[in-house]
Amino acid sequence: MTIRHLRIFKIVCEEENITKAAKKLYMTQPAVSHVINDLEEKIGNTLFDRVSKRIYLNEFGKLFLDKAIRVLDLYDDLEGGLDNLKEQAVLQIGSSITIANFWLPTLLKRFEEQWKNTPVRVEVESARVITEKLLQNEVDLALIEGVFPRDNLVCIPFSSYRLVVLCGTGHPLASASEVQIEELAQQKLLLREQGSAIRDTFQSAMTLHNLSVSPAWTSVNSQALIQAARHNLGVTIMPDILVEKECERKELVPLTVAGLYMENQNYLAYHKDKFLSGPMQGFLKILESV
């Protein structure tokens, strides 16, 4: 039983005549009769009484017509509202912490202005966690930073930031014109957690110099590490955009480390097999203009 069966049945009921229904449907009379007979066969019951070359909707047919009309109304409502449904589907965005602090609010503000009917759900985690959620289809789009992610993801770069080594003004290294990387490795290090793009980039840089990292502090909260560095409890590594004010106020001192330059690229990523809905494409276009 198909929607076509129900539409033709409804017109036959309205016209109370196969020939008139066929004319309205731009079909032949035998074709309409065939559809009605096929429908009756599929439901296992007659819908019309055939008396003296006329058709009369029987009691079963009346009950069936009532349900058929409701089904057709729902179908027409669904078909006519598909564009609205596409916009009303939740857009799930995952973001690493630094991007969520500095880029995501502006991007979402512009998105909400253009896609007013699309609800957005945001998850903020470390870059590694967000990447895994993207691979498991738990988020639609991911804003991640750091090392270029896996091959089965489409990654579009949109900005970057530099990582700086910092200490407090009272720290022994604060007055040094240049710090050797081996000396840095021996300091009390105040680092982000494993899986954060900041930690991964720093560890990769140290590994290139055959140096290992053993932090004195580990935290998911950058501000906690910044405050610890301000109080001369160790050396931290932070995005330059995150510590601009502290450096301007001379609460933190950026250190020049010989042979060490660190930068994280920011990406928008999605799975290569993911269907890009209208809202997802809209978010991509907004990102391209950043």
TrEMBL record:
Pfam family, one: LysR_substrate
SUPFAM superfamilies linked: Periplasmic binding protein-like II, Winged helix' DNA-binding domain
Keywords: DNA-binding, Transcription, Transcription regulation
Residue stretches making up the HTH lysR-type domain: 1-58
UniProt xrefs under InterPro entries: LysR_HTH_N, LysR_subst-bd, WH-like_DNA-bd_sf, WH_DNA-bd_sf
Gene Ontology molecular functions: DNA-binding transcription factor activity; transcription cis-regulatory region binding
Similarity field: Belongs to the LysR transcriptional regulatory family.
Name by which UniProt lists this protein: HTH-type transcriptional activator CmpR
Organism from which the protein derives: Robinsoniella peoriensis
Gene name linked to the record: cmpR_4
